[in-house]
Amino acid sequence: MFYTFSPNGVVKLLQEHYGLTVTAKELEGYDEANFYVKDEQGNAWICKIAGESQRPSFLDAQVRILEHLAKGDTKGRFQQVVRNQKDEPVTRLATPEELYYLRLYTWLEGQPVVTVKGTRDLYTSWGSFLGKMDKALETFSHPAMHRDIRWDLAHALDARDQLPCIKDPEKKRLAAYFLLQFETEVLPLWHRLRKAYIHNDANDYNILVQHDLVSGLIDFGDMVYTQLVNNVAIACTYAMLEAGDPMEAAVAVVKGYHEAYPLTPEETDLLYYLIAARLCISVTTSAEKAAAGSDNEFHFITENGAWKLLFHLITINPLAMQQAFRTACGFQPVINNEVDHTPLLAERKAHIGRNLSISYKEPLKIIRGALQYLYDDKGRTFIDCVNNPCHVGHCHPVVVKALQQQAARLNTNTRYLHDHLVDYANQLIATLPPSLEVCYFTNSGSEANDLAIRMSRHYTQQKDVIVLDHAYHGTSTVAMELSPYKFDGKGGFGKPEHTHKALNPDMYRGPYRADDPQAGEKYAADVSGIIAGLKEQGRGVAAYICETLLGVGGQIPLPPGYLKAVYAAMKAAGGVCIADEVQVGFGRVGDAFWGFELQEVTPDIVVLGKPIGNGHPLAAVVTTRAIADAFNNGMEYFNTFGGNPVSMATGLAVLNVIREEGLQEHARVTGNYFMEGLRRLKEKHAIIGDVRGHGFFIGAELVRDRNTLEPAVPEIDAVVEAMKQRGFLLSTDGPLHNVLKIKPPMVFNKANTDALLAHLDEVLSSL
């Protein structure tokens, strides 16, 4: 505003146009200049001055709505319009620079709710006040309120345009996730919701309180014709911001509103997503203002609280909030805790192979995923600590949108040209050593391992393969033949003739341990011995395949120098070195993008799966030109779904997210923090025998005795079940089933880590 509208200027204007003798004090404002004015008799008003950006028709709407609310049950609870000496509600002020509009309203007594401690009665009063107002507005209308504004939840998805202004990757991801949920859960039902003329900004600065009850509402500058429930959602949002129990505060608002002006079940069911959308509009707007260099504190007044609430909101199962709102309104519940899963389990057993396992004594029915969180059908939230296929987080918005958009355009096989195929291949090989330059795409790690062995046998004209004891490489026939974890286990068929087991290089339980600096070379010597034995029989070796950190073998990092010695022996024997990165790759280990890089080696073939598509069925084999040329022997290689456009778009999105969100470094920093915490627990709890890993590939081995290394089974099963009851999903691994397996989505954060460690400490103390 110009100097004309200083407090002294406003005093003169009010004398000239309203005949008032007052003093004036400037207040903060968002789009308008605001002044508190008072006369000698103690009468007070608020003077508002808007520029040409405020349409006269909309200023008229503000006048009309206040005049409408001055009648009936709402009389005295809203500001009254003071007309000027010409009996006009709005005074036009022409200056050489611009045309301005001055309005004068009576001052409402009361404290902004932000300045008082929230109570359930206050929140209920807040909702009741709005319900009565909206009921009074049933008969109101004004054409100027049919407008497009950023703060209308109907336009929440416009906030995506401001997402690039958010510099913190975790915050940007969170806001994008909730905007995706708005698109998915709200928009399909949007046209069915009641519409009304609403205030649209019943926030904690605009709601006034006296004696712990709402006494008034100010600032109609954001009012709009939109979905009625938005008014409730906005009130819930600001009630939750500083509440000790945010959900309790929102429920109280909804209860009070519903008693005054009944909601529908459909409206209450969407409130979770509408609250999140309002927060997203707020934080993206603040980010945009910050990027533009704004120094107006009003632009950032709720930013910190909004982010805090968004981080809290994602920990709440939407079904739990839906149930709470329905209960408050007396609607049919959506959760029945008395219903068990026996019928579903029976159907599963009847029509699904019974050797398809299921986790936990009391199985979970998971209905939604949200980055590092999972929600079940009983309203519970779980932190996912083990689901590594969803590498960059469940329902990551960037990956979901890439998959959706490509699926809506085209999905077909690779016999047609498509940019995504070569684009993804180029981006993938850019992460690998130069010698790995030819890609083959499949649908699973099992299929990829099968293909890798087939290629190695073509290249070497040999059949024998060396694997590690206890290893697992997949479910295809060939992969099972490479997996001692399966063929030596219950129901297994025993070691095939052409498969040879090398020592599991376990530096905690094996013959060569962590205190032996030559452990890597000694374990590698076992592989050399197998090669020599085959040579004595007149047989060569096709391949050596090894996970670059051992998964089912016990979450074991390989000893220093191990792969370097093994690969040298294999190359000398003419064999192919295959790195199984299915569980390890794509930055999970933190210190490197690929697990084999930790060993300072370059394999001949790399097998990729699980995290490559963030849960989408995608896998790959990447190899050298020489091996690819040998495989090109006249027999066509074709995979109906491998390399299809949707899979390639998904893979590209995953690579972009890892890079743009800095997830490899996040895994390194947070993973180290996690392992430090586990080592502190090891000092306290003798049952933890070993803590090991890299980045977000972590194992904690539980033993009954640190000298005998007797495995702590069934104690570890009790730990996993107890942690599940506390909201943490863990699993076990290792040949003796006594290793806690921790491989969370890469978005798992330090707050999740602290919570898990605190609960694990309590669980271990209770054993």
From TrEMBL:
One of its GO terms (molecular function) is pyridoxal phosphate binding. InterPro entries: Aminoglycoside_PTrfase (IPR002575), Aminotrans_3 (IPR005814), Aminotrans_3_PPA_site (IPR049704), Kinase-like_dom_sf (IPR011009), PyrdxlP-dep_Trfase (IPR015424), PyrdxlP-dep_Trfase_major (IPR015421), PyrdxlP-dep_Trfase_small (IPR015422). It comes from the Bacteria. Residues 28-261 form the Aminoglycoside phosphotransferase domain. Keywords: Aminotransferase, Pyridoxal phosphate, Transferase. The keyword DNA repair does not apply. The keyword Transferase applies. Belongs to the class-III pyridoxal-phosphate-dependent aminotransferase family. This is 4-aminobutyrate aminotransferase. It comes from Chitinophaga eiseniae.
